[in-house]
Task: structure prediction
Amino acid sequence: MSPLDLLVAVPLCCMAAALLLGRAARGLILLAAPLMAGLALWLALLPPDAAYLVGQWELPLGILLRADGVARLMILATALVIGAVGLHALVEPPEKPGHAAQAETFWPLVYLLWAGANAGFLTTDLFNLYVTLEMVSLAAVALAAMGSLAAALRYFMIALLGSLAYLLGVALIVARYDTVDVTLLAQLAEPDLATLMALGLMTAGLLIKAALFPMHGWLPPAHAAAPAPASALLSAIAVKLGFVILVRLWFEAFPAITGPAALQVLGGLGAAAVLYGSVQAMRQDRLKALVAYSTVAQVGYLFLAFPLVAGAIDPGDAWAGMTLQAVAHMLAKAAMFLAAGLMLKAAAGERIADLGGLAQAMPLTVTAFGLAAVSLMGLPPSGGFTAKFLLLTAAIEQGAYLYAGVLILGGLLAAVYLFGALAACFAPATTPRTPVTGGLRTAAPLALAGLAIVMGFGGTALVELSAIAAPWAGPALILPEPAP
Amino acid sequence: MTADLTLLLPLAVLWPMLLAGLALLPGWGPRMLMLLPLGPLPALAAALFAPRDTPVALPGVLLDGGLDLTATGAIFLGGAAVLWFWAGVYAAVYLRRDGRPAAFALFWNLVLAGNLGVFIAADIVSFYVFFALVSLLAYPLVIHDRQPASMRAGTVYLVLAVTGEVAILVGLMLASFGAGGAIGIEAVRAGLALPSAHPAALPLLIVGFGIKAGLMPLHVWLPVAHPAAPVPASAVLSGAIVKAGIFGMVAFLPLGTPAAVAGNVLTILGFSGLFLAALLAVGQAGAKSVLAYSTVSQMGLVMGVLGVALAAGSAPATVLPAVALFALHHGLAKGALFLGVGLAPLCGRAWRWGLMAVLAVLGLSLAGMPLLAGALVKSAMKDPAGALGAVLIGLSALTTALAMARYLAVLPKAKPRRRPPLLMALPFLALAGAALWLPWLLYADVTGKSPLAADLASKLAEAWPLGLAVLLIAGAVAVGLKPPALPEGDALGPVQRRAAALTAAARAALRAGSRSLRRSRPRKQAVIGEDLDRIEDIFREGAAAAILLLAIAGAVVAASLI
Amino acid sequence: MDLPLSDILSAGHLYALTGAVLVGLGLYAFITQRHPLRQLLAVNVVGAGIFLILGSLGRGPDATDPFPQALVITGIVVAVALTAFGAAMIVRQAETRAAAKPAADDNARGAS
Amino acid sequence: MMTFAPLALILLPLAAAVVSFALPERLSAWRNAANLGVACVKLVVVTYLLMQAEAGLVFEWRYEFLPGHDFVLRLDPLALLFVTLSVFLWLLTTIYAIAYFDRGPNLPRFFGFFNLCVLAATGVAMSGTAITFFLFYELLTLATWPLVAHKGDEKSLRAGRIYLTYTLAGSVAFLAGILWLQSLVGPIEFATPPDLAGVPALTLTLIFILCIGGLGVKAAIFPFHGWLPEAMAAPAPVSALLHAVAVVKAGAFGIVRMIYDVYGIGTVAELGLGVPLAALASVTILYGSVRALMQSDLKKRLAYSTVSQVSYIVLGASLIGPFAVIGGLVHLVHQGIMKITLFMCAGALANRMGIKAIADLDGAGRQMPVTMAAFSVGALGMIGMPPVAGFISKWYLGIGALQSDAAWVVAVLAGSSLLNAAYFLPLLYRAWLLPPPADRPAIRELATTRDRMLILPAALTALVSLGAGIFASLPFSPLGWATLIAEGGYLR
Amino acid sequence: MTFAFDLILCLMILGTAGIALFVRDALAAIAFFIAFGNLMGLTWLGLDAVNVALAEIAIGAGVTGVLLILARARLLALGDDATCSGTPLWLRLGALAACAGFVVLLAASVLSIPPESGLDRVVAPLMPGLGIENRVTGVLLAFRAYDTLLESFVLLGALVAVWSLAPAGAWPGRPADPGMTDAPMRRVAGTFGQLLLPVALVMAAYLVWAGSDLPGGAFQAGTVLAGGLLVAAMGGTIGLPSSDRPLLRAALVLGPAVFLAIGLAGIAAGGLLVYPEGMAKALIVIIEYTLFLSIGVTLALLVAGPPVPDASHPNPEGKG
Result:
């Protein structure tokens, strides 16, 4: 018995059960959320070398599941986010009015996403990652389609392209090395054309999935149009899988062959994403579009961290900064989308200018939005701050002033657009408000935002957690002995 | 026993403050007005009985300040106490129908406290605090009747007072620093004498005290403010409060060490004030204005003498007693003259003649009529004043006499058949008596010389300017010559108008400038916005994604190959 | 009949090259085609090319590696699943547009 | 056990904030009780701590919030000075705010953030490391924003936006500065200043500029002062708080920490950074005064006055002389007490009689004599009129400037005093000497409990500012405490 | 097979692919795509990968082709003929340059890798432990069963995703009738379907059984089953079920669920998807049969598309 398999198996069981239960499947989340949170916690507390060969088949062939720090943090955050979003969706219908199909299919898709994300975070197998990537993409596109079909179709096409690029890279790796396991590739990889080509293709494909500028085009329309719980899942989780796979590729499988210049390509794109996403976010007059562009900017930080991690003498801080940024963004962005959904519903409009009076009408929801904004802006005390602080420290220590500048500027720009939205809530109401509050509805975003803030207090523990079995920390993973 | 008597010093300032506090109690205002004379009594006691040069430390107050009564200070303190006392008695009657007795009592007592405190402060911080108290809180007294003229006068007063305060503050800072951070007045004065003293310290102090004391170009507030106040307030303003400025100079001028520049400037300004102000006084239409200018003139004399002494490096002991004595006489006499202005309308017939007689004697005394107290103190001043100074002082009798004649001429007409109330006449007479008597009494003590030692004949001979003045007045009256009508505050009006015009111009320029700045902001935002939209549309295309995918893959490969 | 080419180009490489060209063709079509259904078709061609590379490079002199074969089968199934979803979306989008258009036309007519 | 004392000072307002947020409006009495109770308890704690500190004890609480970066709360004398000030003024402001709002909208929010501000200000004071300082500094920004935008009208929102733009830009500059410095010398603890010997002078200068620039935004140093007058859109208790204790003081306090506890006097002097900073502070002093003179709105005039006055603290810190330090530190307290008096009075005038513009002040002294008397004391103190406390600050600053061979500063002080007089005295003139407009109804100033709660805090601070001046050399006076700090820390 | 055969096959593949991609008419494009798929199947045969060949022909060409035809038909009914649209020349040239460069790079990479069956050596010794012969099945259902497990859920997820597209008012409901509109044709299809369905069932069952040792397996078999079901539905032999039928749900979930259950049961034996010694073959067969059933139904419903509003209740969002 190990959380490594249960974390994938439980959501799959839930998906099957949801299909069997039909409409009654909604309540399943009441069981799944605590169960998964418990499993995720269990995972986080496992000994550092926790690993697992599926079916006990040895490596070049089999699939290795492993709980490193990144996986632990991401899975914990995923459990919290999906749990909260699910509980929220229990009382706040995630579907468009009248779309019974969406109401029913929402749940199996969520569990598919959950299983896919967890499987992806845990596995070290590149092909297995492809399958999980598709699980997540499929669920994500379907969830996005609940809002805008056109946006979802565009998302689908571009995501498909990304998947194929990744698959092509995997194909080259399989052919070249006869294995797709990251830990093995770390020992085998050589900087020849095929490997580089594979790395380039996989990277480019995954950047699409991660929505890094300039491949982010699909994200804002899809995330902005989807129902709030769906948007929350998309922005929080779907884009993170691409990021995690890239981390596996660049820092675990191929650190030996990725040159500093290549890292600068990613870092540069990340920096550009921060600035571009922020500028676009500032220009939006619809709340959810703003939040979606904020995701574009926030994703930029993740990649801006790549050269910082690689360039650090002691990469622990930058690594933790990168990981915590992902986690903090998950929590905060999910909270923000949920809150935004409630606010827009109460405002009966989708523009920022419609938000007037909400600070009075639904203070807790606006508080959740505000707390999430604090984390996204990187203001203390929050997970976002801890992450940016670590990254900024690393950037300055390395003399990477350009990145440091972008980190600082990005926070400021975020403040400009997020406070703009927040301020709109304080404006007097133009029409009477019918607040949408109460119970899980408000509690979910508030809890998530609160967690994003609380993260700021547990910095040391989180940094230590992120460092578990990190690629830079020491020798490669000691594989468990196969059963006799 | 001595220790107990030193406590008179803090009591001298705390007692009026207590009275001021009582005035704040609702309904106590009129009562406190009656109690005004009580204020200076502890100070009087202190001046008489408190031991000299025995500092009283007040730990914890301000910067660990203290009080100290010097011999010179005692004369100032005593004179001021007498003046305030009688003026208080006068005020209690004069203002008995006043609409704001509480306010008057409050500020009267506060100013009193400040005024007395100035004379007994031992450290510069306390000194400055008292000085500010007397300086600024006199403002409500000036504008007490709320007439437009008073308000205008008050504004002028306040502007110059604040300017003076700042000058003094900065001067004291510089001086204190020059003295190694010491705050004792003696130490600071010694520090000012050092070559290392900041060059700006002394000029700033002279300017600051000069404003208060009516040094010539800085005197403009005085002729407008003194007449504006109620009569008793005018009396103390001109008689006692102005002395605070003089005392400041007395306390801080580093006498004994030649300071040529500062001394000569002070001399020139002081003596020119002596004559110019007196001449301006002749041109005034109001009795109080005449007196105010006369004060400027008299104070000019004091400051001229101080300037001479400063430039010459005369020892303090040779100068200060004379100055103190002169100030005492002037304060009491001027107080009496002001009270006389208030009495004049109330004195019909015989009373008026009596009044005029006393006033004339006082005027002659001020002018230096031999055998009167004024001549005595002037003669004391001539020693430190140097040769030229002595001549000038002698000549000033002419101008002073003219001014006094003018004063008598413009004294308000009496309403028929009025007789002054006792409690107003008594203070007047008491002050007049004190002015004429006290210098005689103290002369020997203070200067160490006998008041009668000088040759009477030579004194009479020196009084020729006074005789000339009498002739001139007689002539003028005979021909019906009228003096030119000069405005109160002479140069003040034109300067104010110029200043107002300048301010308006500056305002307009500023406004125009800021408007032009605001206008020139280009509006390009929309264009950039459209471009951004277009870029974003491109990114949303699958084709773009595909090409970018290839480009990024290529870039990663290329970058790895580098 | 043996072309001299066969000396330098094994069958595995030949199919792999074909796969590479298929990927390129598919990509080109994906970029230049506008209709989503045609793009979907292009994506399928790209996928086929990739599978071909994957499989053919596992073609040894005596046997074909079962590992890439299994991956290809998995890939094909995933591809068909996605294609089905994509096709359904394309059709639904067309339906929605068609449903919206007459209403818009009616409005236009009513207005004029 | 007393190691937790600093933590308690943080947690108490947090508890009050939570209670305020949580209690619904109908339980406002409980909320008020909680706020006042916590404020009183804090006062007791601080009094106790002061007594302990007098005995030389220094409390410290430490927690490693990131590897290598400690979160340190440390109550050294300087911290205690600021803490005492904030705790004392907060109690009064709370009383005042309760009366001021009475039954306004959104009060749970207001009091919640209000308490978060206390928390942040206390935290800023007690921060033992640069990072801890930054954390609270930023929290302060965030907690203040909803207060500035409290009214929610166009003006307030605009003010909030401007406030944030300035302060966030400032804090990132500050963050960049300290991180840069940390990357060179390791974590910065105020108690043990870092060894800067190996760092190139240019780098140090740049870092100094970044940090001071960042802190200078909150301290409203020219040209970063723009937010402050705008923030006047906030309700009066907020203005009082922003100006007197929390925001501007945090900036000024930070500058003091930077100069004395991070760089050290020697390094600052060596780099020649003191004089330019003093010059900038001087420019701010004069500029703020001139701008104040041009305002027609009462609160705006007070705001520009704050711009001017806070730079005295910076000036004192940058002059690097024993007296100047004392002057700066003591002005931190004096300005706080006097300015809060002025703002509470301005708020009371607006609240009771609707007086906002200076032109409306006519006759206010007759109708609200206690308020105006308190106002007058504050104003005279600002001018530097003895014996109100402001005079003591100016005195020390002046002497300090001379000690540091910067006699020109004395001229600045003099000019500023004149300008202060020029913009404050007309207010007093109007209030006391001009008749009230005929259409203004007569009021009884202290009729109800609420009126007394509104006005008496200001009267008390006015008395305190008088007392702080008159009894300046008592050991527990602000001056005494500032001297203790200076002797203990900076004049070695 | 000779090199020349390989070469010609490759050229034909490229040719059909080119036509499929660039021919104007959509139906022609799809037809060529199906041809392309079949040629690909041949290629896989040429590569000695029969399992893949079966999958490619059945799924890659067959199911995908039907899917595309059906989609095209539905689009055509809506007035969208899905023809090639003109793109600007600069875009074409740019794309051409980019793709050509990319192909060159890719080709160079591909050529740098020697084709060899590296992992065959690893797989071969493990096969006896499983008790089955087909190495591909071994990889699919044992060594990398985890992939396959997830994949089966992907397929299920795809159906859920398709269902989620159902228009308002169509839930729960049946997919649009894929039946022939032409009556004679429908009758032919009907008859054919009555015949084919049982045949398909039998054939599929055989494919599954064979899959253990010979080429074949659950996916290929499932496709055959789906084909049979679809043809039967076209002819009206069977009606497509409503999406909320419990039996249907059970059929869909059965395969993945059993797979998952067996995988979880393996935890008792040491870990996820661990087959106890000696039971591997039996378990694999169980998985294959259940999976085949579910895959068949899933694929058939995938092709059929999302439920549509009941014809008796006209819906404004329905087909025009």
